[in-house]
Amino acid sequence: MAIDLKAAALDLLPEGVEGPGYDRVGLSAGIVHIGVGNFHRAHMAVYLDRLFETGTDHDWAICGAGVRPGDAKMRDALAAQDWLTTVVELDPAGLSARVTGAMIDFAEIDAASLVARMSDPAIRIVSLTVTEGGWFVDARSGGFDDSHADICHDAQAPDAPRTAFGMILAALKRRRDAGLAPFTVMSCDNLPENGHVAKQTIVGLAALSDAGFADWIAANVAFPNTMVDCITPATSDRERAIVRDRFGLNDAVPVACEPFRQWVLEDNFPQGRPRLERVGAEFVTDVAPFELMKLRILNGGHAAIAYASALLGHHFVHDAMADPRIVSWLAALETREIIPTLAPIDGVDFEAYRRKVAERFANPEIGDTIPRLCFDGTNRQPKFILPVVRDALAAGRPVDGLALEVAMWCRYCAGTDEAGAEIAPNDDNADDLKRRAMATKDDPKAFLSNAAVFGDLGDDPTFAGAFARQIGAIWSDGVAATLDRYAKG
């Protein structure tokens, strides 16, 4: 019989399940984290749990938070189990489970409660995982999008905010007026220069209603850049069954993730920080080179395999990575065109990192899916692929493989795989993308003329020519033959 996960059960954990060796009663919150999803609980919360296990920094526990009505469901589930989470590491050599206890509370799902919590002087860091698309970045300019309805509301009614950023502003203003030091704002989202994006969003929103306050934030609030990495699938009945049947625990919201984690942080925390370097985090002066490596080799690698694999009929990522056509294509693209755009990093072997990424993709225990990797190409391609294209063009390097990746996305957007099976739409712009993709049979420019995605890149003759050749080859020769031709050079 499985036991229900809660604080009272920590002394009764089944054999093979580890739990906190520290006294959670002695923890106090130093961090408010907005966006308590699977990634946060598999990554940041695990690092803190490991740190607390060393017997130090017990004043840096997490108070969870959310701003959307749907966040209440997570809050209720975690409250019922005293904020504990079972983390299962999906190691092909053998699964392991640990109950983590770094979270000790969760703010009520309303603006007043969250603002009050962030205003507490004990809170020295406010961190966020609100997804790549949740930062109000203008897709064309890369600047702050001040036209969104929620942003307009918060600008007009800063004392009754709807967004996490409006609530952060309200708390910062309250602290400033009370003579308290501002907390550090730390993005944990998978974005290039996520600290700069966080500053852009928060200062940009402040400027819409109070230019002086915006200037104060820009001068006094720290926004460190971070690079985060841990493949974490969504929780389903499969993961709950693993925890229940294999490890003897009933956990409504367990997390399953790969055994690999990486966290590189800019060491910019004026009000202090937990000593996470003791448990494997890396603090550096400049995160950008590490971030670029990860965004291009891992996230770019995901994009590279996503559409080709979907078109060849694969559903699971590990099955795609068992297909020699996909493996050869991925290795060729990353070795020839992606890695050459990266500046060297002392002590880092890009080829070893590339091989490790491929090994992680091939992990059959993760159960990651190709449809997840294909999701929201409109937002993901400009983040993970098109900047590589621009850098390669600027350096006079070849872009045939990068153009082939974009052509694979285009062919995917046409809505059927190579066997003729329908591909379910998974992009907010699916109808327009399909129309453009189908038109490339006669006019390759039809896809690249989507300025919201490609900007002026579609007018570059080198890239446009390479794309025209690759999409033409896909339509005439098929996906497999086109991939094979590129892989063989």
Automatic annotation (TrEMBL):
GO terms for molecular function: oxidoreductase activity, acting on the CH-OH group of donors, NAD or NADP as acceptor. Residues 30-277 form the Mannitol dehydrogenase N-terminal domain. The keyword Heme does not apply. The keyword Nuclease does not apply. Residues 286-475 form the Mannitol dehydrogenase C-terminal domain. This is Multiple polyol-specific dehydrogenase. Keywords: Oxidoreductase. It comes from Limimaricola hongkongensis DSM 17492. InterPro entries: 6-PGluconate_DH-like_C_sf (IPR008927), 6PGD_dom2 (IPR013328), Mannitol_DH (IPR000669), Mannitol_DH/Oxidoreductase (IPR050988), Mannitol_DH_C (IPR013118), Mannitol_DH_N (IPR013131), NAD(P)-bd_dom_sf (IPR036291).
